[in-house]
Write a structure and sequence with these properties.
Layout (H helix, E strand, L loop, with lengths): L8 H12 L3 H8 L2 E6 L7 E2 L5 E2 L1 H14 L5 E6 L4 H7 L4 E2 L7 H5 L3 E3 L4 E3 L1 E6 L13 E6 L3 H12 L4 E6 L2 H9 L5 E5 H8 L8 E3 L7 E3 L2 E3 L3 H20 L6 H5 L5 H7 L5 H5 L5 H9 L2 H8 L29
Parallel strand pairs: 1-4, 1-5, 9-10, 9-11
Antiparallel strand pairs: 2-3, 6-14, 7-13, 8-11, 8-12
């Protein structure tokens, strides 16, 4: 979900520059806890369970980083952020990283002074409607009321799509996914639009999910991934290569079930470097040799994390699609561990 910040660019950039100067790796180690910004609640991606424990696809990245740096995947404080508050929280140093369905865009990377460390989900904006509306294409939505998160590029994409197709719509402004769900189910809007993954996650919570349809059109590119502040390259490297470790582990066949065996040494030098039985990659990051082992053990490799939280066997029901490994026709690709 692709929100723009409310503060002016100069203000956010100034906050980011000041917060980055401190050295986040040292701050996290001294604090003994990772402060990770997440969504206010998107099932499958980031939401508290019945016991108040945060679970989800994005949550797993936070826990992997905590395991790599602190040797404790539970040493995380999850800080819910909205589209309006997330960038301010990161820029000010309230959070150490943001893992919150956030789209990598030029202005966020350059003007807002953030650094996207990679892509953990390739997505696109879609539309959900009640089946009873009798609509099979987004191009049939002329005159519809649309629930839309304000101050977002979702909002801008929506305006572009309707203008290009010579259609009109009435926006129903909302701030959180929970509010969108409430308004949509109450009939306050005909359509809910956000990232297609978010629509699937929301629909999975409906009592009668089959009564709602996600339309076929995907109207944007939404590469989602974790981000940190500009200027703190050591911390950026830690978060980037933790994500890459999860992705590479799947490609190399390292799983939560076999990692202890493979950590003892294999015939594959890259696996050995990843798991720390060969080379000095951990030392280069300022961590110990088994940092990646700990990150992978938290929830398994990328494929295991995907399957557990949002995959086809879960209520969310997402296929790998573009998020398959490059060797399987997808876009997922980790740089070499060497």
């Amino acid at each position: 979900m692709k929100k723009s910040v409310i503060l002016g660019v100069a203000t956010v950039a100034g906050l980011a520059a000041g917060a980055a100067a401190a050295g986040t790796v040292d701050d996290v180690k001294a604090r003994g806890k990772l402060n990770c910004g997440v969504a206010t609640g998107v099932p499958g991606f980031a939401s508290p369970d019945a016991n108040g424990e945060w679970q989800g696809f994005d949550v797993a990245v936070c826990r992997a980083v905590a395991a790599a740096v602190l040797d404790d995947p539970t040493a995380v404080e999850f800080i819910p952020t909205t589209g309006k508050t997330r960038f301010t929280a990161l820029a000010s140093g309230e959070i150490d990283m943001l893992a919150r369905n956030t789209t990598w865009t030029f202005s966020r990377d350059v003007d807002l002074k953030f650094e996207f460390v990679g892509i953990n989900y390739y997505d696109g904006q879609g539309f959900m409607v009640p089946k009873a509306l009798g609509v099979s294409s987004a191009k049939e939505l002329d005159g519809a009321t649309v629930c839309i998160q304000t101050g977002t590029t979702t909002e801008l994409n929506l305006a572009d799509f309707f203008r290009i197709n010579n259609m009109s719509y009435e926006p129903v402004p909302i701030e959180t996914n929970a509010e969108a769900q409430q308004q949509y189910l109450a009939g306050a809007c005909d359509v809910y639009t956000t990232d297609a993954s978010g629509l699937a996650a929301t629909r999975a919570t409906f009592e009668n999910a089959a009564d709602h349809v996600i339309l076929p059109e995907i109207i944007s590119k939404e590469p989602l991934g974790p981000l940190v502040r500009h200027g703190d390259h050591e911390w950026g490297d830690v978060v980037r290569w933790t994500l890459n470790a999860l992705i590479a582990a799947e490609e190399m066949g390292v799983t939560s079930a076999n990692i202890d065996e493979m950590a003892a040494g294999t015939d594959n030098p890259e696996v050995n470097r990843l798991l720390g039985s060969e080379g000095t990659l951990g030392e280069m990051l300022g961590l110990d040799a088994t940092w990646a082992q700990r990150a992978i053990k938290v929830g398994g490799n990328y494929g295991e994390v995907f399957a557990k939280n949002i995959g086809e066997e879960t209520p969310i029901g997402l296929a790998r699609g573009l998020n398959a490994q490059w060797t399987d026709g997808g876009l997922l690709y980790a740089p070499p561990f060497r």
